[in-house]
Amino acid sequence: MAAVDEYFDSDGVKIRYVEQGYGEPVVLLHGFTRNIEHGWINYKLFDHLSELYRVIAMDARGHGKSDKPHGDVYGKQMYGDVVRLLDHLKIESANLVGYSMGGRMALNTTIHFPERVRSTLLLAAGAGRPGDAVELWEDLQDSLTSHGQLHPLMKVLWSSRNPPSERQLAAMNANLMEGNDPLALAAVARGYWELGVTAEQVAAIQTPLQVVIGEEDAAARLDADRLCDDSSHATRVDVSGADHFTLLLKPQLGNYIVDFLQQVG
Questions:
Q1: pTM of the complete model
Q2: How many structural domains is the chain composed of?
Q3: What pLDDT, on a 0 to 100 scale, did the predictor assign at position 2?
């Protein structure tokens, strides 16, 4: 089956999705600044999974080829888009796989719309709280609005013991900002606190739940630890030699995803 590349209206925002394969539906949700290509297709994960499943990847609002509004239409609306995608495709429930920000979207969809979710797999993500890193997200909003830069976030996600140089920050920023609208990303950052969850909300999840985290991912490990502490049935895979960015480069990641989907299928 050739990939279908389409759009749908999600509460007034045009959202792009790509669909390929047959069988049980799996929805892929990418991270902040990324898109379908740079989140899934370029890492061969989309093709790998579509050999076994009906795979749908979505450009989150503010990203990729989806609309990029500058107003306060992010936060809760971002996981609302997941449900509206399922409605558009007439899918009763699906497996969700989310990386970083996409993991926050997947976890919130699971909490607020449990009947629409068969299983939840989080990559480089976990149970972040609503009040976490308020200063970071405020600094990021200012940096994106004033300079079109991701520097505050890059410094947090940098895995080396030594802080990144200005040259390294500039190179990373150029790569991650390619094709992005800084004011739209600033708006995403402004509403990011709405993607936080409480321990009680995670504890109430009955859906099969797993987190895959890089052993060197200092930024997301706390959230992964919280997820496993909050949920009595959540499982965990720690990937050696991987940080927040390089997790997607690990060749075994596709197998981890398939193993989880087969266990819960």
A1: 0.97
A2: 1
A3: 78
